Amino acid sequence: MPVTDMETIVRAAEVIVSARHMVALTGAGISQESDVPTFRGNDGLWRQYDPMELATPEAFKRDPGLVWEWYSWRQGLIANCRPNPAHTTLARWARDGLLKALITQNVDGLHERAGSEDVIEVHGNLWRVRCTECDYRAHLSAPASGVPECPECGALLRPDVVWFGEALDAAVLARVWQELHLADACIVIGTSAVVYPAAQFPATVKSQGGAVIEVNVEETPLTPIADVHVRGRAGEVLPAIDRAIAALRGQ
Ligand code: APR
Q1: In the CATH scheme, what is the code of domain 37-79+128-161?
Q2: Which of 39, 99, 222, 230 could hold 193 in an S-S bridge, CB 3.0 to 4.6 Å?
Q3: What is 6-36+81-123+168-248's CATH topology?
Q4: Model pTM?
Q5: What is the sign of the dihedral through the CA atoms of 209, 225, 165 and 190?
Q6: What is the tens place of the pLDDT at every residue in 21-55?
Q7: Ligand 1: does its nearest atom lie under 6 Å from the Cβ of 107?
């Protein structure tokens, strides 16, 4: 890691060690090193597919088979992906009491597979399905085949994810605001910070006097308000920050 980056690594570690209630916000970038495609990068999903064709209620109504084909493909791809050191570092920081809440925009389930508990999934989870008519929900253990139907009422099942134009789950959002209002630090990892309301979460912590750390391979609309912007890949930066925390603690 070049020396200038080491300076930001140590500054990030200092913020984390002195924080009373740090929350994390993650985006697709934290799973990029696990070979899960991001959405807006050069090889991002939205460069290959039209989200309006695949990730909206209208698209599902128009062609549920196409939408399920795409989600089943993503399930199959993600089933072969493994959490990377960024995911496992966050899980450890939670166990060590350094991280009080993990809010993710990701639907890939890699945080849970890395050992994180009680992950706040603001955009849902690719492995969960829910009925379009009744309140049936289930967790898939393998990619869906065809267009699954509800075993309770026979209606179509849909991926339990938030599509464009849909509101986030009110109970999930309530948990997010509860954690944000307690937060005096927010570490933001691998998000382009262009999708709301998640893009607003770090600014909320900042507005109440909290510190914002951003970990990203490029600048984002969030960078100007970040107290520390660590440029680099999450799978390398988080372990480096973890080592700097150990050094600060004399371990
Ligand atoms: N380490 C850190 N950051 C990375 C890495 C990496 N290895 N690789 C990519 N990034 C950064 C990119 O620079 C970009 O800022 O991760 C970000 C990924 O941005 P997006 O692809 O837009 O993903 P995200 O921010 O999670 O999108 C938000 O948009 O389409 C919706 O619901 C979808 O949850 C998603 C939301």
Answers
A1: 3.30.1600.10
A2: 222
A3: Rossmann fold (3.40.50)
A4: 0.97
A5: negative
A6: 999 999 999 999 999 999 998 889 888 888 888 99
A7: no
